[in-house]
UniProtKB/TrEMBL annotation:
<feature type="transmembrane region" description="Helical">
    <location>
        <begin position="286"/>
        <end position="310"/>
    </location>
</feature>
<feature type="domain" description="CAAX prenyl protease 2/Lysostaphin resistance protein A-like">
    <location>
        <begin position="147"/>
        <end position="232"/>
    </location>
</feature>
<dbReference type="Pfam" id="PF02517">
    <property type="entry name" value="Rce1-like"/>
</dbReference>
<feature type="transmembrane region" description="Helical">
    <location>
        <begin position="103"/>
        <end position="124"/>
    </location>
</feature>
<feature type="transmembrane region" description="Helical">
    <location>
        <begin position="27"/>
        <end position="47"/>
    </location>
</feature>
<keyword id="KW-0378">Hydrolase</keyword>
<feature type="transmembrane region" description="Helical">
    <location>
        <begin position="59"/>
        <end position="82"/>
    </location>
</feature>
<keyword id="KW-0645">Protease</keyword>
<protein>
    <submittedName>
        <fullName>CPBP family intramembrane metalloprotease</fullName>
    </submittedName>
</protein>
<dbReference type="GO" id="GO:0080120">
    <property type="term" value="P:CAAX-box protein maturation"/>
</dbReference>
<dbReference type="GO" id="GO:0008237">
    <property type="term" value="F:metallopeptidase activity"/>
</dbReference>
<keyword id="KW-0812">Transmembrane</keyword>
<feature type="transmembrane region" description="Helical">
    <location>
        <begin position="144"/>
        <end position="164"/>
    </location>
</feature>
<keyword id="KW-1133">Transmembrane helix</keyword>
<feature type="transmembrane region" description="Helical">
    <location>
        <begin position="223"/>
        <end position="241"/>
    </location>
</feature>
<feature type="transmembrane region" description="Helical">
    <location>
        <begin position="199"/>
        <end position="216"/>
    </location>
</feature>
<feature type="transmembrane region" description="Helical">
    <location>
        <begin position="176"/>
        <end position="193"/>
    </location>
</feature>
Length: 311
């Protein structure tokens, strides 16, 4: 059995410098989340004045959304992260095809369990509130033609989100230990989704994806995992195959849930990640990571969106 070994992380500067690093990471997350909204506003206003009918075209809205989020927002946030020192993620080389399929089975399994728990908790919350909330993801997917939705969810989102969270961000969290980097990047990935329907399964998938990159050093493997997850979970099988697609998806989800549980139990000793630095407590790392203006603003924005979607 191979044991993941990352070696000793490089020396780090004093506490104030740690906080500045985490602060920049927080502001990069804020820019990635809120920047696209500001960028979209200007062309939307111009189009409303010069060609208001254009805003009624779904492809125009899609182009504005994609350009602002995955190009302008990503680029600005990436520039902020590039100013933070990074460390290699390590890794022992890419997973074999069979290993990648096992990672996919585990990913689908944790997605299904997390999603079922989310549905239960939101149903309980709706009962207490006396209202029925709707999943904002369903509404957003219905706004565009299938081809554009497929392109954004199975190509653009996996590429840009994995590059941001599992490459740029993870490498800057890595000096604080592989375990901390995995959990912190997963938390940021969860909060970035900004709604309760996606936060829990985004966190669990973020952990799986972070483990794969830390284990392999290859972000392209999680891009492929992310694309496959979105393809299987985006309702595309149902849209393409109708009732047969729904049945196939249900059987696939059930098989992956059982198979994922078996794999996690059998390979549990390979899942552990080293804590890393011994001169910093885990509580100290989390305090520095969360208690700075950039990360506080990011958490407020994420929680604010989550509350708005319930109203």
């Amino acid at each position: 059995m191979r044991v993941y070994n990352t070696g000793r992380p490089p020396e780090l500067p004093p506490t104030a410098a740690h906080r500045r690093r985490f602060n920049r990471m927080g502001w990069a997350l804020v820019v990635f989340m809120l920047g696209p909204m500001a960028v979209q506003y200007v062309p939307a206003v111009i189009l409303s004045l010069l060609a208001p009918q254009a805003l009624g075209e779904s492809w125009v809205v899609w182009v504005l959304s994609v350009l602002s989020q995955y190009f302008v927002g990503f680029s600005a946030a990436a520039l902020l992260l590039l100013s933070v020192p990074a460390a290699p993620t390590g890794g022992e080389g890419p997973l074999s095809p069979v290993g990648w399929l096992k990672a996919l089975v585990v990913s689908v399994g944790v997605l299904m369990v997390s999603n079922l728990l989310t549905i239960f908790l939101i149903s309980l919350l709706d009962t207490l509130r006396g209202v029925t909330s709707t999943n904002p993801l369903d509404a957003s997917l219905a706004d565009y033609p299938m081809a554009l939705t497929l392109l954004s969810t199975c190509v653009l989102a996996p590429v840009f989100e994995e590059l941001f969270f599992r490459s740029l961000l993870l490498k800057r969290l890595r000096p604080y230990g592989a375990r901390f980097a995995a959990f912190a990047s997963a938390l940021a990935f969860s909060l970035m989704h900004g709604n309760l329907y996606q936060m829990l399964y985004a966190f669990t998938l973020g952990l799986v994806f972070a483990w794969v990159v830390l284990r392999t050093g290859k972000v392209w493997q999680t891009i492929a995992l992310h694309a496959a997850i979105n393809l299987l979970g985006g309702g595309f099988l149902t849209a393409l195959l109708g009732e047969a697609g729904t049945m196939a998806a249900g059987l696939l989800y059930l098989g992956c849930t059982v198979g994922g549980a078996v794999l996690l139990i059998r390979r549990r000793y390979e899942l552990s990640l080293p804590r890393g630095r011994e001169d910093m407590t885990e509580g100290g790392k989390w305090g520095l990571f969360l208690l700075n203006p950039g990360m506080i603003m990011f958490c407020i924005a994420a929680c604010g969106f989550a509350v708005l979607f319930l109203l």
